[in-house]
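Q: What does the assembly look like in three dimensions?
Context provided by user:
Components: two
Sequences:
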Amino acid sequence: MKNIIPELFILLSSFSLLIAGVFFKNFNKIINYIIVILLAALIFVIYFNFTTSVTLFGNSYTIDPLSNFMKMLVLISVLFTMLISNSYLERLNIAKFEYPIILLLSTLGMFVMISANNLIVFYLGLELQSLCLYVLAAINTKSLKSSEAGLKYFVLGSLSSGLLLYGCSLVYGFTGSVDYSVIAKVAMEQSGALKFGLVFILCGIAFKISAVPFHMWAPDVYEGSPTSVTTFFAMAPKVAAIAALIKFLNVPYANFINEWRPIIIVLSIASMFLGAVAAIGQSNLKRLMAYSSIGHVGFILAGLAIATPQSLSAVLVYIVIYVFMNIGVFACIMSLNRNGVYFENISDLSGLSKHHPLIAICLTILTFSLAGIPPLAGFFAKFYIFLAIIQQKIYYLAVVGLLSAVIAAFYYLRIIKVIYFDAAKESYDKNSSYGLKFSLIVSTVIILFYFIDPSSLNIIVENITKNIK
Amino acid sequence: MSFPILSFLTFFPLVGVIFILLRRGSDEVVERSSKNISVLVSVINFIVSLFLWSKFDTVNSNFQFVEETQWIKNFVSYKMGIDGISIFLVLLTTFISPLCIFAAINSLKKRIKEFLITILIMQTFMIGVFCALDLFLFFLFFEGGLIPMFLIIGIWGGERRVYSALKFFLYTFLGSIFMLIAIIAIYWNMNTLDLVKLMGLKIPENLQYWMWFGFFISLAVKLPMWPFHTWLPDAHVEAPTPGSVILAAILLKISGYGFIRFSLGLFPIASHYFANFVFVLSIIAIIYASLVALMQTDMKKLIAYSSVAHMGYVTIGIFSFTKQGIDGAIFQMISHGLISSSLFLCVGVLYDRVHSRLIEDYSGIVNIMPKFALVFVFSSLANIGLPGTSGFVGEFLTLIGTFKVNYIVSILAATGVILSAAYSLWLCKRVVFGEFKVNYQGEKLLDLDVTEIFILFMLMILTIVFGVYPNLILDSISSSVDLVVKNMRVIK
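A: Here is the predicted structure of the complete assembly.
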């Protein structure tokens, strides 16, 4: 009981907030603050029980350092999303009290997904978070694009869930169990048939992390959804899905590494490359971020494909840095408003350097970091991945990765070009939201000064990954 | 533990940046104090580096002033240190940076505060590159320098600045990823990235070849060597004058340094194997770039191509593996740093007044600007390698060193001297001499002002001092070069 306090806490609080929301008027004003405090408290709760390692509910739910780490990361993403998007939601008049509650429920789904040790539990978690995400994408009911994004996401998401469920059923059919450890045992003896299930499940997860060729939804949904929701999409669901993927590949399918490694490598190469090339032609910042996140997922998958303790540590470090870079960039995007209108084209960034030097500098640092230029954190993230790849002597993967990093640098540089080199446009509203400024500065400082002490994160992460297998 | 003087040199400019950022007040006040702070910081840095030189032990061929702390656990240490090869490059950086800051304050019109911040950050990266004794640390400084240079070209550059900045950045970035792969491969094969330890260990021969190549591509782009040089003229032409100076005087030297330190130091077998390949590329660079320089109509482009040619001597000297050759290469780097700076500053002086870099727009400057003409002609002559200037010593030593190894290379390289005389003198003839005619829209064609005289005469004096008394440099570098040469001879 003690070990699932975070999950219970989220569940109960979202229900009680829902009820409270019905009875109190103007509840949406304070609900955000309540939830921010609640999430911050939860991060500490998990932090203090970080090293617990137990399985619950008949071996179907595990709490271990890996899951705790990923849960904290999800909580951080949600927390910052809330902080950033407060004023945005109010300005767009979508600050309904349901919004943060759906966010919370989705977080709960991610928690379940991260901790799942059983295909059914995993699927339940996945569906809970996905359903919430569909609603979130369409939450701006006045915008046609938002509804389109929601619908698109829903249709394609259900398809992928169907594939995933089909894969689960195949696995169940061949092994007679949905339990990860039982599957692992059966996988030692027989090999052939289990591959089918593996492929379908991988397709389903690849959709959730928008790996190429299952990425089609991402640019449209990123663009159509309200920016606050896009921020959330870019971080939390990916963290959760990657956590689940790490576990799925390394626990039940640990023996199948030769089967799934080529699949993951293909996904990875395709994502890195397409993420880099397709982003060049984009003019919308949110679409650009969609392709950028596809590219980053490619790097993460490259680390997953190697599946050594080093590479998994690299993946975890990468995700942490990825989350903070995204927090910062979306905070910048959300500060581009003038008289209640939000701008999201790359060309709208011109003039930032003149009128808003602080935002311009932060965005520049974050963009260079996204491009992987030292000494910023993004470089370290990529560097650890390449370190792990070259250790296994998979040189072609490293070369493709580095080349796509160079191609990607081009479109990141274009952002900086618009900020600094182009003629200035009129200024944006001075942003008074403290949450936004706070998130922007915190994330930039973390990205900029990560190089001073990279080891402490490495130590935490290494302790986690050495126990995965 | 003694005072970490190298870390101080490296990171002190950043302290200046912080002070500038903390200044509040009206724009004018902030601008003035940012000028003061940056001048102060860079001058202090120069004085500290002179102090460093005075404490430098010329007999000792090992690394000195070594600082070491663990940085990334079990993986990378923060290790700094200098030897005879790097000390003058550090001094060059600390000497050129304040001059650039003076030049920027004098000539730059817009966003002066940001420019000074970028220059100071740049200074940190450049000093760091020469002091780093860990491959990872070196790469960090090497690559990190791209960011400020990209911004310098892109924000303060000329008309085609966006194109040039992107080209500069992507070209160098693409080159350096090969170095990154090589560094990672070294780590997995040797289990350390510590340069001192790596020099003691022998990297297996079969690995040396392609690791050498990884480093080579990256350094050759940065040098720039012949087929990889196309970014340089663009970057030079579009960069503002102080940016061009930094680019020519210091950034190009990083590769020369890298060749001595890494190609020769870590991969001696591969260096022998590829020496002729480097000779061929360098000869092409010298002759081709000189010929191209002859045909330029833009002064900055002409000097840029002349830089490519002069860096050819550096690579020839290094890959001759003789003491004279490497001495000459280092000397040539220092001297080119001084001479090309002064040439770029001269062009900057003209550009500030007339807003044109085209040679055809000028004629007979000497009639109006005698002091300028003196400096310009002097720098051109130094660029040719007139005896008595530092340019002569560098070229002469590299040619001697190469002659011992391969006289054909030496002869072909010597033609570059003639060609450089041709384009430099022709440039002087067209711009400085003849009948006065200037195609300009500016107010009045004034001669050099006090700041410009100060900057240019500083450079001129040093050029003469090093030319007349080269031992000032050669004595200090000798023992470290001996070590490199001995190392190479053992392998052969």
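Follow-up: The two ends of chain B are 40 Å apart (CA to CA).
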